[in-house]
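Class, discuss our next protein.
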Amino acid sequence: MPRSRILAIVGPTATGKSELALRLAEAIGGEIVNADALQVYRGFDVGTAKPTAQERARVPHHLIDILEPQQRYSAGEFARRARRVIAEIHQRGRWALVVGGSGFYVKALFEGLTPLPRAQPAIREVLRRRAEAVGPEALHAELAVLDPTTAARLAPGDRQRVVRALEVVYATGRPLSGWIASRPAPARPLSALHVGLTLPRAILYDRIADRVVRMMERGWLAEVESLLNTGVEPTAPAFQAIGYRQLVRHVRGETPLEAAVGDAVVATRRFAKRQWTWFRREPQVTWFDPRDLSTDVSGVLELLEPSD
């Protein structure tokens, strides 16, 4: 068995990463470390496809429901928390399965992050006001000119990260992607096996549409209404997530429900495309079609066997 006892399961949304992780964790004696940027938020359950209570009873899950919706989360914070959790899992003699579609978070965990310039409140406030006036999509278009690499991995509606990326450009004259590219190796490298799930685009897009429909049937809209009614501000970081921000617009009377759901599907498909663009550049990932693993995960288990 590899000494690291870390398995990363990555790939676009709706490919079945969580289901595979559950089956593998039960087979090898593992615990799941959430690498999704949104499942950390309490109350944001349906639209993040958060593991159910039954699934969490089957296998221990970590870094889920650890923040309030108004709190901010970052790749650096994730990496710090995940390293502590993985060390605790290893102390128990078990595998750590790092599972999620946030390539930047996974990269931060295993490769480290370059210290970025300090926040510039004056510049950030100007950018926030502009985002309020013209919309985050306009700022994203601006970022696509100044830092196309970063713009390609951020959703146009991700106001928080788009503003931060522009702030770095204007404060330093250097794009955020340039800072990230000069990332040093982490002080304590983590080695892991990386497994990726992928599907033909047409099939993946159909899965995404079906998934959104199922989420609506499970009460996604009611969840959004409840969160707003309990005082969560529409500008909270958690509400900037794909799907949630579209449904917030509907609840506020800005968009018909059918249009909001359609926008959520389109935005999720675009997000999946960005995820695939990111992960396909990672040479350490061994790729599988999840349909081939529906009844037999032996192909993945064989990777976990000792090489000697």
